[in-house]
Amino acid sequence: MDKIVVFLLLILTGCAATPKDKDFEEMIFYVPKDYNNMSSGKIKLNAMIHRAKDKKNRIGLLVLNFGGPGGEAVESASQMISEKSFPQSIIDRFDILAIDPRGTGKSEFISDLTRCSFNSECDSEKESVGFNISTMKFTQDIDYIRKSLNEDKITFLGYSYGTKIGQLYSFLYPQNIRGVVLDSPTSIEHGNAIEESMTIPFAYERIMYHRLSKSEIELIKNINNKIKEHEIYTTKDGYKIDQDNFNKLLETIISTNDDDWSNIKPSLISFLKTEIFYDYIVKIQEIESSNSNDSSDSSLAAAIASASIGSINCSDENKPLLDSEIEDSLSLFERKSSLFGSLAYNAYYSMCLRWKAKRDPLPYISKVNNRVPILIIGGKLDSLTPYEEAIKVDKMYLGNKKLVTVNNIVSHSFSFSYTDAYVDYITEKYLLNPNYIIDNT
């Protein structure tokens, strides 16, 4: 086995809250560019490790991934540790490892995606880099790094897209993993981006029924019917609403956080009852203005993440669709929801349209039958990874698994995020003893 070159540096900057914490170490790993072609050379991955405080009772290595695709890990993990988001028991007993995946943070291929983020027509860049930043390759990276650190097993905590990595790792390397937390999962079983996004309308519908009354929803449906019949709906104060404008209105219902929603809802209800649109527009502009103070660094990170989503999702496809099938899929979305079908279709249909590049497809996985204990956390009102995905993942695992359902919270990614104390408790106890939680929860 090739020996990985590892450079260890004390973190003196980057984790501002704990600049002198001796347990933080910054690491650089050199891993194969292509595991199927070991002569392809090595690439650099940026990482951070926070050493267990209680050395005598150390459990092992806890690997974090925050999803995306396109999300970095080092800054997010450092912030969570510095802000004491993790229970002290986890800080005490685990070496916590965060690796910036390929194309994120300070890892290889970030420059390609940075250039792409400034170019609205960057299909060629996304295609050229997609094969090299696939889910398969980063999953292989994790195991390569595990071996370099002389760890027999890892424990994995993944959020959102990061749960795909956890599912794939548990499938490929069951002997090398102690336990897996899949928080807000998306199933690895989907063959293409369109298939994966088909559950999105169900999530949108659930959130709408949670936030609006039946009579208010009927008013929404009436507007939808008028637009479908006449293409344009004209409000009493003269605003013309077409399908795109209507989709933006729907988006405010399902994607705003609870605080913003409490501010938006009265003006939306007033519009639905009076058909006077002006006050609603003013309120939306106020919310957008108050949320537009992101730093240039965070805006750039979001742009890079956006550029990488298509690169990874399209490269991962093992049942890619023809362009004609993608373009004709609107009716499939609308069958799922006459209200939200168009919104979901517009958000996802172009992702892999006209993709011509080489893929690094995920393996076909329908059932996983091993003794790895799996904790699955799904939110009934999660608009990003619908609850149907959690159910699908739960059914995929035939052995040791437990599904925890979060109700009545419009949120995404729950563990150690100050969202639900009981979820934090379950995740903490699972990480400390996976089999106990699986058997007793």
TrEMBL record:
One Pfam family hit: Abhydrolase_4
GO molecular function, one term: hydrolase activity
Transmembrane segments: none
InterPro entries reported in the protein's UniProt record: AB_hydrolase_1 (IPR000073), AB_hydrolase_fold (IPR029058), Pept_S33_TAP-like_C (IPR013595), Serine_prot/Carboxylest_S33 (IPR051601)
Residue ranges of every copy of the Peptidase S33 tripeptidyl aminopeptidase-like C-terminal domain listed in the record: 339-435
Similarity annotation: Belongs to the peptidase S33 family.
PANTHER family to which the protein is assigned, alphabetical: 2-SUCCINYL-6-HYDROXY-2,4-CYCLOHEXADIENE-1-CARBOXYLATE SYNTHASE, TRIPEPTIDYL AMINOPEPTIDASE
Protein name according to UniProt: Alpha/beta hydrolase fold family protein
Organism in which the protein naturally occurs: Photobacterium leiognathi lrivu.4.1
